[in-house]
Amino acid sequence: MSEVTATTGPKFPEAIAQLTGNDGNAFAVFGAVTDALKKAGATKDERDEFLNEAMSGDYNNVLQTAMRWVTVR
Length: 73
What we know:
- By secondary structure, the chain is α+β, with helices and mostly antiparallel strands.
- The chain has helices spanning 26-39, 44-54, 59-69, and strands at residues 12-17, 70-72.
- The protein has a two-stranded parallel ribbon.
- The protein is globular, with a radius of gyration of 11 Å.
């Protein structure tokens, strides 16, 4: 998977995850992003791929992965 750039954007740009004003822990991010992906029609395998990628590092990785997958607000 490629990095997000100004020209490519997130993998699921129609999926919008509200992260500001939330708890600020990784599990809250996982829930917000997977809910947004599900609403946007992502398959279970795609949602699982997001979770596997997001869980492969620290909290900064969780946020970066979220931004590669969905539109973050």
